[in-house]
Specification:
Layout (H helix, E strand, L loop, with lengths): L13 H13 L4 E5 L5 E4 L1 H7 L3 H4 L11 H18 L1 E10 L5 E12 L5 E10 L1 H22 L9 H18 L4 E7 L2 H8 L1 H18 L5 E6 L2 E6 L7 H13 L3 E3 L2 E4 L2 E7 L7 H17 L4 E4 L7 H4 L20 E4 L2
Parallel strand pairs: 11-12
Antiparallel strand pairs: 1-2, 1-5, 3-4, 4-5, 6-8, 6-11, 7-8, 9-10, 10-13
Helix pairs in contact: 7-8, 8-9
Amino acid sequence: MADDKPRQMPPFDPSVLEENLEDLYENAPCGYLSTLPSGLIAKVNETFLKWTGYRREDLLYVKRFQDLLSNGGKIFYETHYFPLLQMQGFINEIAVDFICQDGRKLPAFINSVLKKHETGEPLVIRTTVANATDRRRYEGELLLAQKKSEHLANHDSLTGLMNRKRFTERLHESIADAHRNKAQVAVLLLDLDRFKNINDTLGHHIGDLLLKEVANRLGPCVRESDTVARLGGDEFVVIQTHIRTPNSVQILAEKILKELSRPYLLQGHEIISGCSIGGATYSQGANEIDKLLQNADAAMYRAKSLGSNNYQIFSNPSLTESTVRQPTKTVCYAPMSTKNSNLFTYRKST
């Protein structure tokens, strides 16, 4: 039969609680420091010592709180931290770097409370230290993730060039700049010749390698102020800014044609391809972006209709559609001769 009598609790020893409180203080998940108004450290817990590598005897009544801070932190302590602490009696969530015993930096957030005598004289400063190492690492990783996300949102994942979205933004920016400076802006649309045949014959992985190599070759052709983007598939575009001479667009088009007509060595295949380029300039009356791109597109289709490896520059916005596509200039960099001109040319390297 169960004993219904209430059990008597053993006598409570307050010293056990005191020991537990001290243990909690020493091994808390945050650091604790008590300092005199001068900053001299009077008490510190084990957690802070573990984080920083100091021994207790290295700090107590030997080091000042500000001695443990980085150079910038020491200046901040004197000019902002302590004056503000005296004025309002507390400081919350201040980011500092402690210099550890081995020279490492310990990023931390501190909260301080100033205890005063009844006369108003400062007695002791009690500071709680939160280790921000993981937080800083997380913030760094988050920042990198954000930058990567922004990069992916604005760049082509295959070639690393700007994508259509970012190209449109840059074109708006370039035209606005041209307005302000009364300058000229040109757009050159590029379409690789016989790219579908390359994909169908050698596979998409070779096609992807070709697109990457085209992107690599386009970069050195332009200036830092210009823009190179991939619109999709085998279509690329260049924004040429700060045009100073009438033939600047033609010179760039010829430079690109010459560069892209050089053979490509891709996984044992020597591929000779080319591109068709259509250009248009903002100063020719294409006051709207859509019209500017339409003019460049018309010139590019005219270039494609004339055969591989040539460029056409849109020259007169007042002409009709049928006249728009009349060539202004054609430059050909002929690849290796082939019996079937509808196929790209390649050799298997040995």
